[in-house]
Amino acid sequence: MTGLGKWWGRKPLILIRTTILGLLMPASEDPEKDREIFLRILTMDDEGMLIRKDKNISLKELYKNATLKQRTKYFAADSTEENHALRKALSPEQKEQLQKEVFLNMGYDERFKYCLRPEQIDGPSPEAWIEINSHLGTRAHSINQLIEQLGVQQFGHKPRVGDAFCGGGSIPFEAARMGCDVYGTDLNPVAALLTWASIHLVGGGKEIQEQIKKAQQEVFDAVDKQIIEWGIEHNEKDWRADAYLYCVEAKSPSSDYWVPLAPSWIISEKYRVCAKLEPDLENKRYHIRIITGADVATYKKAEIGTMQDSEMVCPEKGDRFPISTLRGDRRANGETIYGLRQWKNEDLVPRPDDVFQERLYCIRYVETRTNKQGIEETFRHFIEPDINDLQREQKVLDLLKARFHEWQSKGYIPSSIIPPGEKTEEPKRTRGWTFWHHLFNPRQLLMLGLWGSKIISEYRDTISSIGLLLSIGSAIDRQARLCGLDSHISKGPGSTRNVFFNQALNTQNIYGTRALHNLRDFLVFDFKNSPSIENRNHTVYPADARSTNVNNDLWITDPPYADAINYHELGDYFLAWYEKKLPELFPDWYAESKAALAVKGNDQRFRESMVDCYSNFTRNMPDNGAQVVMFTHQDSSVWADLALILWASGLQVTAAWTIQTETGSALKVGNYVQGTVIMILRKQQSEDIAFLSDIQSDVEFEVKEHLKEMIEIDDKEDPNFTDTDYQLAAYAAALRVLTSYKLIEDIDVQYELTKERRPGDKSEIEKIIDSAVAVACDYLVPAGFEPGIWRMLSPEERFYIKGLEIHSHGEYRNGVFQELARGFGIREYGQFLKSGKANETRLMTATEFAAKGLHDDGFGKTLLRNILFAIKETRKEDSPQTGRNWLYNELPDYWNAKQRIIHLLQYITKTTSHIDDWIEDAQAAKLLTGYIENDHV
Ligand SMILES: C[S@@+](CC[C@H](N)C(=O)[O-])C[C@H]1O[C@@H](n2cnc3c(N)ncnc32)[C@H](O)[C@@H]1O
Questions:
Q1: pTM over 0.85
Q2: How far is ligand 1, taken at its centre, from the CA of residue 555, in Å?
Q3: Rounded distance, CA 674 to CA 632, Å?
Q4: Residue of 166, 549, 594, 600 with the most ligand 1 atoms within 8 Å of its CB, for mutation
Q5: pLDDT tens profile 749-758
Q6: What 3-state class would DSSP assign to 359?
Q7: Burial group, residue 255, by CB count within 10 angstroms (0-12, 13-18, 19+)
């Protein structure tokens, strides 16, 4: 689906699959059996995972994970950790058996490395279906049949799933794939197009996919032929370019030279290609020499660019000039006035008197030679453009100019202006670009416009035309003036980064343009592994969520809540290329981004629009229907707000789960794990009215009951629930009680929704949630910790103790600590960390903490903080007496606290003694424990 085009915040499909199944599966009297069946259906049980296993475990891993018995049975007698071999004469069946046995020794995460995803296989085995059917009273042999039958049981028909914030389409797509009837809308037509395409193209089956690929390949060939005819990518030696690198130039106020601007002149680390600046006295500019296989000195010099910390750095003297000064930005009447000339529609390249010029400085050519064996070999060359190359650039510009107006009027290239916005101002301010097409250089516009010209004129069938239009969407994330060079990527052959490497429209000082063949993967789709969606009953179109009037049994939505992405602004980048074609292909759709209707922010207007949307879904849902709202895990104020919104929309919270979604993006540095909350809601149908004072004890009771239930059903050997789950269960329990009433006398919902919030303000709902979390915290006693002492600790002390426990399990992911802090209601947890880097996050040890924040309010005054300092003192002086004296002098009642001190010290010693960074501190803690144990009045 991601190949169809960029959308932000896509939800993982497996998350949707589990959600839909969870909503449709009836709960029996036996929750453990329910869970077992749930996992069987998802092929996440042992048998299912064996079906999904498609990779062999290496010999090394086999040995490492085998039990003693398995080692004896399958490995040569003299095998060791370092040197091992299988026993001679093991039959293929025995080897297979070993693979299976060791695979089953592994935990889920480890097994996962050797498996296909659940959606990639046909589903459970025939034997599993017998068990599933007998538990659920169904007669299914496939997921689609099961979903239909569960829908009939619950609603009397195939379940109908709606998502009115469908974005990239994960929810409608997965629901359709599972066999549900589907209704998907999004305010943004680009999102609607992606969702429509995910179901019709990705899920469209082989025939449709062949049709699209054929059309894309034909257009690719036609564009290729034209480019060859024009001779704009080949040089005199018949080498063909595959990338062009451009840089921005500006005049140095001190030397009057045009200085090319780049943060670094390294082009390819792998091939040691870099650029070297040489003054061109005659033209008062610099030659940019391209050097392949650079020597150490040249390479080192190239690492230092002419653009550092938003300043121009002149090559000779090192004079520095802020870019904003060069631009001439100024402030007047409290507003910034952009200094750059704002480009006109006809501007395709900078005018000679513009502050910033653009310059082609390197071409990567590919030479193809046939060797003696008759085999074609390719060689890459990084070349400084010569006069002929520059003439080709001019030809590209001339060809484009000759077609520009016609292409704009026909919609082959964008013609609209960039609307105002938070992210859309940057191109105007930093380059003067005012129209969307300014974000593309002539070579890019010529190639993509040529592609656009082939869409309607040659392919009349809608499906092919949509496929061809999406090619452009997919390509322009990789082909724009915004595609910078990435220092990591430049480890390879100097490739470019995609436009939306982040959620902004950042202009670049150096950028790359791909030649046609280098863009093929994005223009011609690869539908490998695409499933065919059997159920064709689905409706997708652009619409405001408030205007939806279609009934759905289940509404599953992932609203733009607390995600701070400007969907409508970023979406316009794509819409600019679609806006004239979309109405031809989808005559019933609108083709504007409708920015004014976008749900965004977190103010009063946002809350009101959310209530409008969710009341609307609730009206369009049967009494026995359900809703799921997904959002990222935040602190209790965000929860309180959302609870209020949903309650005001006539919904009642019935459960909440957090799912840790891994993110691989370099952007999310420090946050590789992100908690997505899945909140389950039903129609609020009670007539009961309550007072806040009544609710408090109900909440406490509900939290305790719920946690008890979770602890009971959790697997003691291989726990399913994490601390965050328990904390979250407390949030949910509080909301469940609260939203179960029609009205709470002391809460004025309308007032709460509309009132201005000041930082630090706590609403009544937030206070209830906080108290529920406090109850849960009393429950979340770390293994081996005395519950009575645990209850006496502050949230910060608990966070630290829990953090040590997490650390002792080898956990270094930032997101895990972040979630934990949220659960304890701690906003500033950076004070506890030695490193907050992704996958290197850990708490400070006692010694690292030293005297930081000691005596400060909060953690600084706690017993645990003093104990950490005493450990540090003990280690430093190599004397437990120093540590003990510190505690004796600092604590108001040392003797009374003695047992707690000993317990905390013992816990620290036990938990940390095997952690590398802790070894010496743990020894000091042990020494101090012994000393205090023998300390008497
Ligand atoms: C978090 S995204 C959904 C992502 C989606 N679940 C996925 O997996 O790709 C939220 C979506 O809400 C849409 N949106 C914002 N305001 C809207 C409104 N008033 N009506 C409908 N959709 C809206 C945005 O365009 C965005 O696509």
A1: yes
A2: 14
A3: 7
A4: 166
A5: 888 888 877 7
A6: strand
A7: middle
